[in-house]
């Protein structure tokens, strides 16, 4: 599955993407804010990521900026009974709204897939991710829970968010690319 937003192209990862992924994510300030990524994160970890199978109800994508290449990743995962979104954007592309744009595309796709609710979270020491979630339409649940961060090697407090898809209008239109 491929998605196009106003500025981005979201697509599956292919084996030849591993070097670009490893370069884009190669900063501890990115990886420490992800639950499932190890640090250090190198080519071997990127190769493992591109080899992950796609779940039709919870796909994951590379975020590509036309003319720039791979600038991040966004997708769904399973968190217990819930479907969770996650994302990361390369450091040099922070502050330009790409994470919010990708998150909004995921919300719209979740509706199409048939999900009624999404969850997400950000570590307490990463408030910028909370602003992304808020702009995308998520609301804090009022819960701060401990969540393991593989890169940190420990549990850290995570602010939990949810998005009730039936209560929210579609954030914007995206086109399914052929």
TrEMBL record:
UniProt keyword list: Acyltransferase, Transferase
Stretches assigned to the N-acetyltransferase domain: 19-166
Top-level taxon: Bacteria
Transmembrane segments: none
Record GO terms (molecular function): acyltransferase activity, transferring groups other than amino-acyl groups
Record's keyword annotation contains Acyltransferase: yes
Record's keyword annotation contains Lipid metabolism: no
Family according to the record: Belongs to the acetyltransferase family. RimJ subfamily.
Name of this protein: GNAT family acetyltransferase
Species in which this protein is naturally found: Aurantiacibacter luteus
């Amino acid at each position: 599955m491929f998605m196009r937003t106003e500025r981005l192209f979201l697509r599956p990862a292919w084996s030849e993407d591993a070097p670009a992924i490893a370069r884009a994510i190669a900063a501890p300030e990115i990886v420490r804010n992800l639950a499932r990524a190890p640090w250090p994160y190198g080519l071997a970890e990127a190769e493992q990521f591109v080899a992950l199978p796609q779940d039709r109800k919870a796909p994951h994508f590379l975020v590509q900026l036309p003319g720039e290449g791979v600038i991040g990743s966004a997708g769904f995962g399973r968190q217990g009974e819930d479907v969770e979104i996650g994302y990361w954007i390369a450091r040099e592309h922070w502050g330009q709204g790409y994470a919010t744009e990708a998150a909004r595309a995921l919300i719209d796709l979740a509706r199409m897939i048939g999900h009624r609710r999404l969850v997400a979270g950000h570590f307490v020491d990463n408030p910028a991710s909370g602003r992304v979630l808020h702009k995308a339409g998520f609301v804090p649940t009022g819960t701060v829970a401990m969540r393991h961060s593989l890169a940190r090697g420990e549990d850290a407090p995570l602010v939990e968010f949810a998005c009730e898809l039936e209560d929210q209008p579609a954030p914007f239109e995206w086109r399914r690319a052929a």
